[in-house]
């Protein structure tokens, strides 16, 4: 059943095609009303939540467990005694995969808007499946840059982003809770996959491990078929008519098509620009612990049996943080949700700097517990903030461009840390520097709510001035006509 909030005003003459729309669908949007009030009340929405949970869990479970694959890749290449840059080269495999998830996001936004969440997600899962499966048939690090880094990374991006957007079609008032369930449930993968990879990796080898991981993506292909959009597509008929009238030459036609597919309107909002820049700055050091922490404890504490516990701790507290932050985000009004991200980035930076200060393996475990908590708060609250900043109809584009901006720093962080290890012979400086960008990014994000409040006050003042001018004009008209003003 559908619930419409607020109810639409009656219309005498409905245009063609509106009768088959869901209540408040394209008609509401064309009239400038917010169709996000539609809430689909039914069990199918929770099936979508399960599919999105599997998508997030399988993709980021594999990505966050790359520390295990990182050691296996080096062992598969002979340990790297003869190559002094092996740390840098091996880290680039995982960094490329994570970076491509974000780099492809603006393109994924276009596909999501034009061909739908279902087709985009299923196609992406198929590409990721091919990437993981083909990674098992080579031992070349350079080939795995393409199969794992490019194919698996790009496919993951096309599968992942629609899983964020589709939740906004089925939930409004409980969107934060739905995101929290998806993000928290996906952390079960992050908790179990490190132990799973450690066990099967030593038993069946790296090649067969990639084949087993590809099965997760095959299941995701089937689950992506549940991503049936509820909200109607964009009502661009008026803008298309204007574009056709204005397009008199090839240059104008190209410009019209670029505006159609690359919606840059989200960047007109100052608050969105600052928010996106702050997050892009913060994530430069975000992925460094996930890649290098396993290797660090092996070198520093000679721990080669229980190092997988660190990734389990990261996944466990990340799941807790996602569940808690989803519920907290629903209780915090407006853009004040950003302060959750500010706190998480500040604490994440401090915890990265604390890793070299730990003199025992147990100390690193405690640090990982806090790192996972920060990860949970940061990830879960991202989509609700995007909806607050730009609205539900532009949320797909806003998330896409944000993830695209995150791609370069996310990709650069782990290889830079590996290069610093190759140069200095330890990870101390790498972890100290990895903590600086999250702190800077948190400080940048803290100004977004303040700027938003200032903009609202300015709009209210302008609106008050306009009302005064209208009142003065009406009074002058009455005086000129010799009438007594009402």
Give an overview in words.
With 486 residues, the chain is an all-alpha fold. The chain has one domain (2-6, 28-232, 263-445): MFS general substrate transporter like domains (Growth Hormone, Chain: A). Helices cover 74% and strands 1% of the residues. It is built from 21 helices and two strands. It has helices at 26-30, 44-64, 66-76, 86-103, 105-115, 117-135, 141-165, 167-170, 175-223, 237-246, 250-261, 270-282, 288-301, 308-331, 338-354, 361-380, 382-390, 395-424, 428-434, 436-445, 448-480, and strands spanning 2-3, 39-40. A two-stranded antiparallel ribbon has the order 1-2. Helix 13 (288-301) packs parallel to helix 18 (395-424) and helix 15 runs antiparallel to helix 20. The longest helix is centred in the middle third of the chain and has 49 residues, at 175-223. It is globular and about 80 Å long. The two termini are 48 Å apart. Mean pLDDT is 78; it is low at 1-41 and 235-239.
What is the arithmetic mean of pLDDT?
78
Rg calc: 25 Å
Question: Secondary-structure element order, as H and E?
Answer: EHEHHHHHHHHHHHHHHHHHHHH
Instruction: Give me the side-by-side strand order of the main sheet.
Output: 1-2
Number of helices: 21
Low-confidence stretches: 1-41, 235-239
| CATH superfamily caption | MFS general substrate transporter like domains
């Amino acid at each position: 059943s559908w619930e419409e909030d607020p109810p639409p005003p009656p219309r005498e003459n409905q245009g063609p095609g509106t009768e088959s729309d869901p209540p408040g669908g394209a008609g509401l949007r064309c009239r400038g009303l917010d169709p996000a009030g539609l809430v689909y009340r039914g069990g199918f929405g929770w099936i979508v939540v399960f599919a999105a949970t599997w998508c997030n869990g399988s993709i980021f479970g594999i990505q966050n467990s790359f520390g295990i694959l990182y050691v296996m890749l080096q062992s598969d290449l002979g340990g790297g005694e003869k190559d002094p840059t092996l740390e840098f080269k091996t880290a680039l495999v995982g960094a490329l995969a994570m970076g491509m998830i974000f780099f492809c996001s603006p393109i994924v936004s276009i596909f999501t808007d034009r061909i739908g969440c279902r087709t985009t997600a299923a196609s992406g899962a198929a590409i990721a499946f091919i990437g993981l499966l083909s990674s098992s048939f080579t031992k070349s690090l350079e080939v795995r840059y393409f199969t794992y880094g490019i194919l698996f990374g790009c496919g993951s991006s096309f599968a992942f982003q629609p899983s964020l957007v589709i939740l906004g079609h089925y939930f409004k008032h409980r969107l934060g809770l739905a995101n929290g369930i998806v993000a928290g449930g996906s952390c079960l993968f992050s908790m179990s996959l490190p132990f799973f990879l450690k066990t099967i990796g030593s038993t069946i080898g790296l090649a067969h491990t990639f084949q087993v991981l590809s099965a997760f993506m095959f299941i995701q292909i089937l689950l992506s078929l549940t991503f049936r959009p509820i909200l109607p597509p964009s009502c661009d008929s008026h803008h298309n008519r204007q574009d056709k009238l204005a397009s008199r030459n090839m240059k104008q036609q190209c410009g019209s098509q670029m505006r159609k597919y690359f919606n840059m309107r989200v960047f007109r909002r100052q608050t969105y620009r600052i928010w996106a820049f702050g997050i892009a700055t913060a994530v430069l050091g975000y992925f460094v612990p996930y890649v290098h922490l396993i290797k660090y404890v092996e070198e520093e504490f000679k721990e080669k049996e229980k190092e997988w516990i660190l990734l389990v701790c990261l996944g466990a507290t990340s799941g807790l943080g996602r569940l808690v932050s989803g519920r907290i985000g629903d209780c915090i009004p407006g853009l004040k949700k950003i302060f959750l991200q500010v706190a998480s980035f500040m604490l994440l930076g401090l915890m990265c700097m604390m890793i070299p200060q730990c003199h025992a393996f147990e100390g690193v475990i405690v640090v990982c517990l806090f790192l996972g908590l920060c990860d949970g708060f940061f990830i879960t609250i991202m989509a609700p903030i995007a909806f607050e900043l730009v609205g539900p109809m532009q949320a797909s584009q806003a998330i896409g461009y944000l993830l695209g901006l995150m791609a370069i720093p996310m990709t650069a962080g782990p290889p830079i840390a590996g290069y610093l290890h190759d140069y200095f012979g330890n990870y101390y400086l790498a972890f100290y520097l990895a903590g600086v960008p999250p702190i800077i990014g948190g400080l940048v994000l803290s100004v977004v709510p303040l700027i938003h409040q200032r903009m609202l006050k300015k709009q209210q003042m302008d609106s008050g001035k306009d009302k005064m001018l209208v009142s003065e004009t009406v009074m002058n008209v009455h005086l000129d006509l010799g009438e007594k003003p009402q």
